[in-house]
Design a protein that fits this description.
four-stranded antiparallel sheet; seven-stranded mixed sheet; 0% helix; 121 residues; 55% strand; mainly beta
């Protein structure tokens, strides 16, 4: 059974940093694509990062500020978030098997319970 458990969210001031963790079970992080996605109030799910073959991928909105990494021995995925902005405020999820629907809505087969990130002064 695939399980994803996020932690590390919190309240941070603009320009601050947070590191999110995703503890996984039921699969091996080295053999599967794992994503970080987020959802702000009233908005659709948004892709934030993915790690494939050890390489991170990012949309322009977070490129240069966020870094995804993994600890293979712990089967854990991390998201280091620097220079946070108020628009980064959202619930962040670790997710697997994500794809866009025909209407361009992001859907993921597996998601954790999420961790709240709030960026505010």
């Amino acid at each position: 059974e695939v399980q994803l458990v996020e932690s590390g969210g919190g309240l941070v001031q603009p320009g601050g940093s947070l590191r999110l963790s995703c503890t996984t079970s039921g699969f091996t992080v080295t053999s599967d694509v794992v994503n970080w996605v987020r959802q702000a109030p009233g908005k659709d799910l948004e892709w934030v990062s993915s790690i494939v073959g050890g390489r991170g991928n990012y949309p322009p909105s977070v490129q240069g500020r966020f870094t995804i990494s993994r600890d293979n021995a712990k089967n854990t995925i991390y998201l280091q978030m620097n220079n946070l902005k108020p628009e980064d405020t959202a619930v962040y999820y670790c997710a697997k098997e994500c794809q866009y629907s025909p209407g361009r809505t992001l859907q993921c087969t597996y998601r954790g319970q999420g961790t709240q990130v709030t960026v505010s002064s």
